[in-house]
Write a structure and sequence with these properties.
This protein starts with 6 loop residues before the first strand and ends in a 15-residue tail after the last helix. The strands form six sheets. Strands 1, 2, 7, 8, 9, 10 and 22 form a seven-stranded mixed β-sheet that branches. The chain has a six-stranded antiparallel β-sheet with strand order 4-15-16-17-14-20. A three-stranded antiparallel β-sheet has the order 3-5-6, with no helix packed on it. The protein has 13 helices and 22 strands. The chain has a single domain, classed as FAD/NAD(P)-binding domain (3-Layer(bba) Sandwich), CATH 3.50.50. With 522 residues, the protein is of the alpha+beta class. Helices cover 22% and strands 19% of the residues. It is globular. Bound molecules: flavin-adenine dinucleotide. Flavin-adenine dinucleotide (FAD) binds next to helix 1, strand 8, helix 8 and helix 13. The site of flavin-adenine dinucleotide has 39 residues, from helix 1, strand 8, helix 8 and helix 13. It holds the Pfam family GMC_oxred_C. InterPro entries: FAD/NAD-bd_sf, GMC_OxRdtase, GMC_OxRdtase_N, GMC_OxRtase_C. It comes from Streptomyces silvensis. GO terms for molecular function: flavin adenine dinucleotide binding; oxidoreductase activity, acting on CH-OH group of donors.
């Protein structure tokens, strides 16, 4: 690490999921000077981070920025939105469930003005991914999770899926694919897969525990200078000769833009921030996967083996008119995940399991904004959960809770269960299930969309299909904030694919050949 150098070719703000991919790809050219500014510490050698199964202990820890939510009129106002503060970002903190996006998820992006982001272009990037992505290992397949899969399949008449990434599916139950090593339980995070092997590159500088808080213009008016707070509290200005690449995630990327005067002009003026670029879309379109939870006490302790305690799941399509994609998803937990039910007064069983139905393409859309011009003040997040006028999100959760009960009543899963703890068998009507489901709701931790990509002439788009700040040179955004709509599935792999695509857009390297036409292209 060269503290003297403050000018690089590329400055990557955020060494998270997308940032790690970009850092590795751009520094492949030894003549290209790449600097990563990362707010958190290194993950190298830190077992707390590297062991996947420890993920649950990272929630709310020193590695979590821990964002709160605005009062939710129809949802749960107590959700803590975990966002990782460590190299690798949320891929160092999450459960590493790895799904390719559905072709229709990407077709939706193209319809929204994102030329060049269709499935034929994006899905072949799976051959470039460096992460080890495998179905949950045999030794990690807990008997109760296996029986959940069997009960879901027989009870609901859906297939058992051996590999969710083999082909698009409409419904099915099975063990997930995870980015990990089943032999060691070590993560194959973006940091492990992309950064660890290249950390000794002399042209790659990692500035850790360093916080970017303002973008400044250079002499040509481009936003290529970044003010950062160093670990010792001092302040530096770093400069990119080529481009600044914002990879700070769906909350911190728009936050940094707003602090830099890039956002809705009225909002910025109200806070006394000088308007550098009036971009009304910054902070709008806050997307997520909302979920609820049903908890059961089991007849006794469960076998201990697992990859990360939520190894299996279920997808259903309730409405065939909506196309081939599933419209309801469940995670199955072999531990009682009771943060929200406990707050509502439900007992916490010593031994238990739960199911968490979620809304894959939620229709309620939120927004985020700054509370203050002070960079230290956390932004406001209002997800507006369950506010879509048709009541689609609420309906999905009610259906999900009913279906969860059906699965729980089906052998062999039913043989493990002593009683339903939350919400309890008396909660049966739509109205009561909705009330419980929304009050106990949680996030699947997938915020996205707050700097959405769109056509050059779309006034609410923040970046164009080349991921450039619309109408500006020298600044691109590469992270979950650019998603115009939420993919049906857990989004980390979509972020990785988008970052691989971005590396090609930046370097003008050709895209990989369509899948099946060529050996894996690395
Ligand atoms: C608990 C949890 C579980 C999840 N489970 C899954 C899962 O199993 N499967 C899945 O597909 N998705 C999962 N997700 C979601 C997924 O991990 C994220 O959507 C994805 O990793 C986001 O990638 P990103 O590059 O947009 O941001 P991040 O990975 O969050 O990267 C942002 C990085 O920027 C840094 N940063 C932020 N602001 C600044 C600043 N101002 N200065 C310097 N550095 C900064 C942060 O420290 C961080 O390293 C989960 C998320 C969480 C939190």
């Amino acid at each position: 690490m060269d503290d003297e150098t403050t000018t690089y070719d590329y400055l990557i703000i955020g060494g998270g999921t997308a940032g790690s991919v970009l850092a590795a790809r751009l520094s492949e050219d030894p003549a290209c000077r790449v600097c990563v500014v990362e707010g958190g510490p290194s993950d190298v050698g830190d077992e707390r981070i590297l062991k996947l199964r420890n993920w649950i202990n990272l929630l709310g820890s020193e590695f979590d920025y821990g964002y709160t939510t605005e009062e939710q009129a129809r949802g749960n106002s107590h959700i803590l939105h975990s966002r990782a503060r460590v190299l690798g970002g949320c891929s160092s903190h999450n459960t590493l469930i790895s799904f390719l996006p559905f072709p229709q998820d990407l077709e939706e992006w193209v319809r929204g003005g994102c030329d060049g982001w269709g499935p034929e272009t994006i899905l072949p990037y799976r051959s470039r991914l460096r992460n080890t992505i495998v179905p949950v290992g045999a030794a990690d397949r807990n008997a109760v999770a296996q029986d959940f899969v069997t009960a879901a399949s027989t009870g609901l008449g859906v297939p058992v899926v051996e590999d969710f990434n083999a082909r698009p599916f409409t419904d099915g139950a099975g063990f997930f694919s995870l980015a990990y090593d089943p032999a060691t339980n070590n993560r194959s995070s973006a940091s492990v897969a992309y950064l660890h092997p290249v950390m000794d590159r002399p042209n790659l500088t990692l500035r850790l525990e360093t916080w970017a808080y303002r973008l400044l213009r250079d002499a040509e008016g481009r936003f290529t200078r970044v003010q950062v707070r160093n670990p010792d509290g001092s302040v530096s200005t770093l400069e990119a000769e080529a481009e600044v690449l914002l990879c700070a995630g769906a909350i911190d990327t728009p936050r940094l833009l707003l602090l830099s005067g890039i956002g809705p002009a009225d909002q910025l003026r109200d806070l006394g921030i000088e308007v550098g670029a009036d971009m009304p879309g910054v902070g709008e379109n806050l997307l997520d996967h909302p979920e609820s939870v049903m908890v059961w006490e089991t007849r006794g302790p469960l076998p201990p083996n697992s990859a990360m305690d939520s190894d299996a799941g279920l997808f259903l399509r309730r409405d065939a008119a909506g196309g081939p994609r599933p419209d309801l998803m469940f995670h199955f937990y072999q531990v009682p995940f009771t943060t929200n039910t406990e707050r509502l007064g439900y007992p916490v069983p010593e031994h238990g399991v739960c199911m968490t139905p979620n809304v894959p393409r939620a229709r309620s859309v939120g927004r985020m904004w700054l509370r203050s011009a002070d960079p230290a003040v956390k932004p406001a997040l209002d997800f507006r959960y369950f506010t879509d006028p048709e009541g689609y999100d609420e309906r999905t959760i009610v259906d999900g809770l009913r279906i969860a009960r059906e699965v729980a009543a089906t052998a062999p899963l039913s043989d493990w269960l002593l009683r339903e703890v939350a919400p309890g068998p008396d909660v049966r009507s739509d109205a009561d299930l909705s009330e419980y489901g929304r009050r106990a709701a949680h996030t699947v931790y997938h915020p996205a969309g707050t700097c959405r990509m769109g056509a050059e002439d779309d006034p609410l788009a923040v970046v164009d299909p080349q991921l450039r700040l619309r109408g500006h040179d020298g600044l691109r955004i590469v992270d979950a904030s650019v998603f115009p709509t939420m993919p049906t599935i857990n989004p980390m792999v979509t972020v990785l694919l988008a970052a691989e695509r971005a590396a090609d857009l930046i370097t003008a390297r050709p895209a990989p050949a369509p899948l099946g036409t060529e050996a894996a292209d690395r």
